Amino acid sequence: MTLLSTILEHNDQFVSEHQYEKFSTTKFPNKRVVILTCMDTRLTELLPSAMNFKNGDAKIVKSAGALVAHPFGSIMRSLLIAVYELQADEVYIVGHYDCGMSSINTESIIDKMVARGIDRDLFKTLAYSGVDLKGWLHGFKDVTASVKQSVDAVRNHPLMDTTVPVHGLVIDPETGKLDVIEDGYSKTTVKND
């Protein structure tokens, strides 16, 4: 039995027994926040629990390292949609200690791509086309500095509402302890209504 067939078998039971009912909510976050965090498996249930969020309380966007790598990429688009269309009034960038992005070796990733069948000549074509693959795959050395950089990218984005607090935190993936790196309340513009 494949993993997919196991998932689908469980899903049939999940739906037929109405187990989904306990997760019922709207598309709008109850606590009016959007979180950008890492895709690390240790954070799947730990992060919402550590922040006292349950299903429906927050929009959660995930990327490797909780990075905003491009000002007009899909991560930033998701954050802007959450603010302007889905009623999020605050943004939380939450990195974590012991993040795999802090030890990324781009040469090793490229070697693994080649081992899985990607033609090594493709990397020359990408470089010739102006794609900085090593820069694109690169991680960071310090999670605190990385969180600050992502907070700055969101806070200073030309399309971001300056009254929206953008917070930066780092979570311990072992204990769930949150360390505040940037308190967004101190850096927002006051709304004049």
From TrEMBL:
Pfam families according to UniProt: Pro_CA
Keyword ATP-binding: no
Annotated SMART domains: Pro_CA
Family of the protein in this entry: Belongs to the beta-class carbonic anhydrase family.
Keywords assigned: Metal-binding, Zinc
Requisite cofactors: Zn(2+)
Lineage top rank: taxon: Bacteria
Protein name in UniProt: carbonic anhydrase
InterPro entries: Carbonic_anhydrase (IPR001765), Carbonic_anhydrase_sf (IPR036874)
PANTHER family: CARBON DISULFIDE HYDROLASE, CARBONIC ANHYDRASE
Reaction it catalyzes: hydrogencarbonate + H(+) = CO2 + H2O
Keyword ATP-binding: no
EC numbers on record: 4.2.1.1
